[in-house]
Amino acid sequence: xxxxxxxxxxxxxxxxxxxxxxxxxxxxxxxxALQGLWSAEPLMDRIPEPLLxxxxxxxxxxxxxxxxxxxxxxxxxxxxxxxxxxxxxxxWDAEASxxxxxxxxxxxxxxxxxxxxxxxxxWVRSSSARR
Length: 131
Known about the structure:
57% of the residues lie in helices and 0% in strands. By secondary structure, the chain is mostly helical. It has two domains: 3-45, no CATH class; 57-126, no CATH class. Helix 4 packs antiparallel against helix 7 and helix 5 packs antiparallel against helix 6 (90-102).
């Protein structure tokens, strides 16, 4: 049994006890699963939150703003996470466009000096910023 297996075992035990895993632990589990270090699919299905792994400026910003923006924006982020390549299908793109159009008048960004800027503009801008 390796360290990755031990992490999965501890996470499984915490979830079984009704405990919540921190965002950082969820991020570790997701990254471990992507690297194939252990089979995490059943465990990942039980950990829907946080939607994104914390620790990057852009993900931290999105995670901080989602509670205020509400469920429609969470649905948009969930959809964005379903992209399987750098070139999404036309269907995927149409669905993403429909989400954005449905939120044509979102509240302004709450984390920058430009309150009139839409949240997704700040999200994209912060994705290339350094910590």
